[in-house]
Amino acid sequence: MPFCNVSSYQNGDGDESDINGTNIFYRTYGQGPVKVLLIIGFAGTHDSWGPQIKGLAGTVIPNDDESTAGDRSNESDEGDGVEVCAFDNRGMGRSSVPTKKSEYTTRIMAKDAIALMDHLGWKKAHVFGHSMGAMIACKLGAMVPNRVLSLALLNVTGGGYECIPKLDSQTLSIALRFLRAKSPVQRAAVDLDAHYSQEYLEEYVGDETRRSILYQQYVKSISSTGMQSKHGFDGQINACWTHEMSRKELGSICASRFHISVIHGRYDVIAQLCHAKKLAEKLYPSARLVELHGGHLVSHEKTEEVNAALLELIKASKSKISLHEWTNLHKKSKVCKATRISFCKTGSLSFMFKPLLLGILFFFYGLSVDVALLHGLWARRKFSREEKAAVRSLLEVDKPKKHQSCYFYPLCISD
């Protein structure tokens, strides 16, 4: 099986990840001079990129599959072919699971991706990320901009408070249903509403709705998938909550002038569209915003549109189209201002509202009962003894025994 020992490719700049022998499991697909690195999000595995691997490389059969070696004997790195690499982030799938939260940051995970590029002998690549993977891709773009040909950020936010989902009746309903869910059957029904738009779920495919078809697949997947370890789960949560892009880092990306696509589903109830718009505006004129009629898994819900946007991005990079021709944004824009205010001033949240908001966070990010972790959710404000007790009582009813690895990507089971 293909693994990359990241410590073999890192110079040791103070991160503990350089010396702990972390192994990253990866797979490559297709052949050609165009290199694409796919970075999956929270609790996802490499095969969560299945629809994009098929669309870009033309196959979902990995290059290390010996049964197809003869079929690739005539392939080469010439022409317009695409070679895709997808991998399991640290803390998930077949990759190593460091035990310290400090070993999980988007910067460290970006270094894993860079080490993998070195391992593959890729000097440059198109880097595409989804959700947490998009945060990692953005960090990578700032760290080694000279190695990025283009950047695609799918269903991305700026991390930290921007991980808090939109608060409306639909989100509250999903959160309450989640708190009552005690089995894969109940959980699958809730997950569908979090991952896809309602319109998509109610469409008919033959005699059945997509909801009915996906529901059966979700139940099977959640029941049979491996469980993500607590260390990996908590570590990836830490990476999301501690992620931020400084003005200097964003400036580094813009100065490199590679093309960027920010792709997002309008009905994403996990990552708010306004945060993606705000990030795209900060990356002007390099960025183009692509809004699609879909939810958080827009890469699955709108596969053709997403793949077309990615191929167009690759084409724009190759043809060196002017950034001002590429972007569909304006230099100055005031997006998401109200949302930022509402979540930055969290100290004013009422005592009764805090546990409800926590319930929503526990649904979308699977947070365990870790009061220390909650400390940073409200502007570093400490919770009172009474508030901590309320949080515990809220969670104790349906406290999960383990972390389910594929709650975000339930259709993707490791090989």
UniProtKB/TrEMBL annotation:
Residue stretches spanning the membrane: 356-378
Keywords attached to this Swiss-Prot or TrEMBL record, sorted alphabetically, are: Membrane, Transmembrane, Transmembrane helix
Tell me the InterPro entries matching this sequence.
AB_hydrolase (IPR050471), AB_hydrolase_1 (IPR000073), AB_hydrolase_fold (IPR029058)
As one GO molecular function, the record gives:
hydrolase activity
| Sequence segments annotated as region (Disordered) | 60-83
Superkingdom, taxonomy of origin: Eukaryota
Indicate the segments forming the AB hydrolase-1 domain, all copies: 36-302
Which residues does UniProt assign to the signal peptide? none
Would the keyword Transcription regulation turn up in this protein's UniProt record? no
Look up keyword Ribosomal protein and say if it applies: no
Would you tell me the protein name for this molecule?
AB hydrolase-1 domain-containing protein
Source organism (scientific name): Fraxinus pennsylvanica
